Amino acid sequence: MTNAAILYPLLAQVALTFVLMIWLAVVRTRTASRGEVRLAEIALDASGWPDGSVKIANCVLNQFQLPVLFYLLCVLLMITANLSTQQIILAWIFVASRVFHVFIHTGTNNVLHRFYAFLAGFVTLIVMWLLFAFDIIFKGL
Fold first, then answer.
1. How many domains are contained in the chain?
2. Cα separation, 55 vs 106, whole angstroms
3. What is the pLDDT of residues 25-39, one digit of tens each?
4. What is the pTM of this model?
5. CATH code for position 68
6. Which has more confidence, 67 or 38?
7. Per-residue pLDDT for 80 more than 80?
8. Mapping DSSP to helix (H, G, I), strand (E, B) and coil, where does residue 25 land?
9. Most buried pick, 13, 37, 46, 115, via CB within 10 A?
10. What is the extent of the structural domain holding 79?
11. Residues 105-111: contacts with CB within 8 Å, 24+ apart?
């Protein structure tokens, strides 16, 4: 299996993060240019932004939590040449869970549904790390 196989889900997760960041920039620029927020109030405290902007901003912040461990694992899988079909499938499941999480978070923001999307990604990532650790410990580098 080539390293490119793990790069596709990794790049999809990166793209998701960039799309969210661009969306946030567009929404905040539009909001500020319409005078819907006072710039002095939001300079040091983001609570002055409208709810829609806050939802997107919180979602952007979430992309720097679990996905950081995903990125690290992808790099380690490439460096150690421990890629497997299972890891690739799990990587895509993780990214899909993040996409669902984004849609829920920026849409209805139903906390229970959002938690289930988070949990799916969390469990998937744990399984990925356990498989990696098992391979390193029992099969060696």
1. 1
2. 6
3. 999 999 999 998 988
4. 0.93
5. 1.20.120.550
6. 67
7. yes
8. helix
9. 13
10. 4-139
11. 105/55, 105/58, 105/59, 105/62, 106/20, 106/55, 106/56, 106/59, 109/55
